[in-house]
Amino acid sequence: MQYCLAVMPARDEQNTIVAVIAGVRKHLDCTVLVVNDASSDATVTVARAAGAQVLDLAVNLGAWGATQAGIRYALRHGYDCVLTLDADGQHQPEELPALLQAHHQSKANVTIGTYAQRLSIAKRVAWQYFRLLTGLKVHDFTSGLRVYDLRAIQILASREASLLDYQDIGVLMLLQKRGLLIDEVPTVMSPRQFGGSRVFASWRLVARYMLRTTLLCIARIGSRADASRAEKSAP
Questions:
Q1: Element of type H or E holding 155
Q2: What would the mean pLDDT of 69-78 be, rounded to a whole number?
């Protein structure tokens, strides 16, 4: 069994994070690390009181920056498996053992827990657009519920991965470029009770996300072609 660390990036999640930590500790025998992304509320205090280890960032790095900080922590402390999940309570902890089991059985380097039913029509159109641009056969690019093995951890802890703005398409394209296997497992999600998405909080942020991700995809087209040729030439 791999030595697993559960990583939760969190910004102003004092209302939900205690229940999430308790749920993870109940269903998984692993350490929980909360990466506090410069919260202005009591996220740090309640997370520590709930039994989690806390990495307290001095400045706001965004969801991917906070997640990468947790991944680097895992690599430095000898973990060979990282499970990431959101601190907002949408992911159901009782689903986590099945996700980890599916990850180990599939031999994938990355396993994404997806709930395609939650996707709006706009997101379904956007994801189809990005699937055509990237060649990634993934149904839900923004799911924060993922399992990474040691090879993925080593790549995502790199300086190259620090250049990414988001934790979704760019991360998967980087792993695809290095030849890693990506798998998806259906999961169930609950509606968000407090707060909102940091990526899709306004139309301005959505437009910025679409523009930056499109530019990233276009910049990576050459790498995608190289990976395709390498895959075809492999014995």
A1: helix 150-156
A2: 96
